[in-house]
Amino acid sequence: MLLFQPEVRAQFTLSGEFRPRTEFSRGYKSLADDGQDLSTITTQRTRLNALFATDGLTTKLVLQDVRYWGSQPQLVTNEDYATSVHEAWAEVKLAKNFSLKAGRQELIYDDHRIFGNVGWAQQARSHDVALFKIENEITLHLGIAHHENADVTTNFYNGPDAYKDLQFLWFNKKWEQTGLSLLFLNNGVPFFVSEQEQENRYSQTLGGRITHSLEDVSLAANLYIQTGEHVSGNDIRAMNFLLEASLKNGITAGLEHLSGNSYDKNDKVYAFNPLYGTNHKFNGFMDYFYVGNHINSVGLNDIYVKYNYKKDKFGFNGHLHYFTSAGKISADAKSYLGTELDLGISYKVQPNAILSAGWSVMFAGESMELLKGGDHTAGQHWGYIMLSVTPTFIQ
């Protein structure tokens, strides 16, 4: 009954998501062999989203089921295929313009390069973190996370996550035409000194993003430096920069550099790690780079042109990437890795239902074989068909 009292001013929304996707692959993430057949798989993400908000409190619960079609028996007799919790957080207003958001939540900042929700992946990404937020003329977020095993008699962590301790500070300021973000991330990865002692090795990522809008073009630049200690014990000296220009007609051109290791330099780790970003968004939809792979490798130079078109219910996108290695693969290997073409279309069949499809081709160079194996002349293809339905049950 409190929901209907005007003075409470509470809002409750219950929504869902149904997203089956069929993918066709021959050379996805890694080069195919000449005799390799095309594979076809179907995955599905199903979500139930509940959001409750008042003036001083916001809570969100997202239940999620992710599966391959055919992975579960038709007659289910066990609990191995349980629904997971993708998000479960509460944000409490502590003072004017100051709040605490704690629980399992997505972290999305700027263009998703360092922190993103990886929305393309059916499982997506969320963190167990406490987030202190100041949001006024400037925005300042302080995030703190600490992980340990369930055994309270030790302080060990050897779980599935990429860090044991994480702290970050994100600053954002917007003017009429310009935006500036600054990020400091301290990432602590555990290692065992002995069977009875565990320590962290910390790396730091520092940098930010600046955007500026003109009458007919929008400009953006990223610069991030990584330092500190790699989990291997070596020092880190790595960097990432991006320059991008976007026209109002839908054309975007840019270049990105992610530093990498070279075969003749092993005194330090020179490979930049984009950590918790939405990497599928950046360096080609075939996911050859930084999507569960290519970490601590030769890095990447990516020169790209993108075109995105939308009118009424129809959408089209075409992306072209030219890839070279940032580090030296070997004494004789060329730096050229390949050229990728990504094409996609979408159509809104109903207000809450979108049908989309895409096809990608990788024209790989010989040097790609040294990194990925396979046959660069075999023909590398990947495509998908996806239905995304997002109904709102209660609002």
Describe the structure.
With 395 residues, the protein is mainly beta. It has one domain (2-394): Porin. 2% of the residues lie in helices and 55% in strands. The protein contains one helix and 19 strands. It has an 18-stranded antiparallel β-barrel. A hairpin with a 2-residue loop joins strand 14 and strand 15. The longest helix is centred in the last third of the chain and has 6 residues, at 367-372. This is Alginate export domain-containing protein.
Count up the helices. 1
| Poorly predicted parts | none
Distance between the termini: 15 Å
Return the average pLDDT rounded to an integer: 94
CATH class: Mainly Beta
H/E element sequence: EEEEEEEEEEEEEEEEEHEE
Proportion of residues in extended strands: over 45%
Biggest sheet statistics = 18 strands, antiparallel, barrel
What's the short story on this structure?
By secondary structure, the protein is mainly β. It contains one helix and 19 strands.
Describe the SSE topology:
Blueprint: E1 11-26, E2 39-53, E3 57-68, E4 84-95, E5 98-105, E6 127-135, E7 138-146, E8 165-174, E9 178-194, E10 197-213, E11 217-228, E12 238-247, E13 251-258, E14 300-311, E15 314-324, E16 336-350, E17 353-364, H1 367-372, E18 380-389, E19 392-394
Antiparallel strand pairs: 1-2, 1-18, 1-19, 2-3, 3-4, 4-5, 5-6, 6-7, 7-8, 8-9, 9-10, 10-11, 11-12, 12-13, 13-14, 14-15, 15-16, 16-17, 17-18
